[in-house]
């Protein structure tokens, strides 16, 4: 992961580092997780938890989580997964397991919520919003804890591996090793090689080609919005169409003139879709 070269001013409120310990990391001790609260003073408001993409971090979200929380009237929690941002780096000799996203959903996120004293009652009102790998983790969390969240938003999710994803990730490796991608990412991660190769190596491994979370989708019971851009070069519409088949309550939002990062490519359309979707269930809950 890598350290931010300058203070992040667009994400406001309380920033810090939480210590969590997982059975799989007991030999290395606790993991430090970089996090930031948005609207921390709104203790009565529902919580939105943001899960970043495969090369993301707290800093790389920029101001989008803050903007969305402003529109939703929610508190927000943004954090960097282990290996990213200013969280504990991945040891360079340790490759992520094929099921690394399941570990994040079932172990890391619950441990962080425990460390930050997010109560069971708060979790039942919580919305989990993820992008790319973070969207897949969002789906896995919703499947693993079907009664412990209000709803989920999966933006450009992966539910199985497509050739277009592998081809684009292979191109990213070339850009990282031969172009300027490494220098761009280094502004946002304390150990940039930990962040990049943790993501790149597992996605390009032969073992990962058979990775799929399609079966897990049937366990999702909460309201679910899945968003995909038509110009996404990391995945096609078959990803969210598959979600709709497996989780019939899912609502789909397909965005024109939008690539893999709708919060950057089409933020107004994305915000409108999320706000309308969440408001529907918030209003229903109020009766």
UniProtKB/TrEMBL annotation:
<feature type="region of interest" description="Disordered">
    <location>
        <begin position="1"/>
        <end position="20"/>
    </location>
</feature>
<dbReference type="InterPro" id="IPR029058">
    <property type="entry name" value="AB_hydrolase_fold"/>
</dbReference>
<dbReference type="Pfam" id="PF12697">
    <property type="entry name" value="Abhydrolase_6"/>
</dbReference>
<keyword id="KW-0378">Hydrolase</keyword>
<dbReference type="GO" id="GO:0016787">
    <property type="term" value="F:hydrolase activity"/>
</dbReference>
<dbReference type="InterPro" id="IPR050266">
    <property type="entry name" value="AB_hydrolase_sf"/>
</dbReference>
<feature type="domain" description="AB hydrolase-1">
    <location>
        <begin position="49"/>
        <end position="270"/>
    </location>
</feature>
<protein>
    <submittedName>
        <fullName>Alpha/beta hydrolase</fullName>
    </submittedName>
</protein>
<dbReference type="InterPro" id="IPR000073">
    <property type="entry name" value="AB_hydrolase_1"/>
</dbReference>
């Amino acid at each position: 992961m890598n350290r931010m070269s300058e203070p992040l001013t667009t994400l406001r409120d309380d920033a810090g580092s939480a210590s969590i310990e997982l059975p799989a990391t007991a030999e290395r001790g606790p993991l430090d997780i970089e996090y930031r609260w948005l609207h921390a003073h709104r203790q009565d408001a529902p919580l939105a938890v943001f899960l970043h993409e495969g090369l993301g971090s707290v800093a790389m979200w920029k101001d989008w989580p803050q903007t969305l929380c402003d529109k939703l009237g929610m508190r927000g929690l943004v954090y960097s997964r282990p290996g990213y941002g200013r969280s504990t780096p991945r040891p360079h000799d340790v490759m992520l397991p094929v099921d690394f996203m399941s570990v994040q959903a079932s172990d890391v996120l619950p441990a962080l919520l425990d460390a930050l004293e997010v109560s069971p009652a708060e979790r039942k009102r919580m919305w989990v919003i993820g992008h790319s790998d973070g969207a897949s983790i969002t789906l896995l969390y919703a499947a693993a804890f079907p009664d412990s969240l209000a709803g989920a938003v999966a933006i450009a999710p992966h539910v199985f591996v497509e050739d277009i994803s592998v081809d684009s990730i292979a191109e990213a490796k070339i850009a990282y090793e031969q172009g300027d991608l490494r220098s761009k990412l280094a502004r946002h991660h304390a150990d940039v090689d930990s962040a990049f190769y943790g993501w790149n190596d597992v996605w390009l491994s032969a073992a990962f080609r058979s990775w799929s979370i399609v079966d897990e989708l049937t366990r999702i019971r909460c309201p679910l919005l899945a968003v995909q851009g038509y110009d996404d070069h990391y995945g096609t519409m078959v990803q969210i169409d598959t979600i709709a088949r497996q989780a019939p309550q899912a609502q789909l939002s397909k965005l024109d003139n939008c690539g893999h990062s709708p919060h950057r490519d089409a933020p107004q359309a994305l915000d409108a879709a999320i706000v309308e979707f969440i408001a529907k269930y918030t209003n229903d809950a109020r009766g």
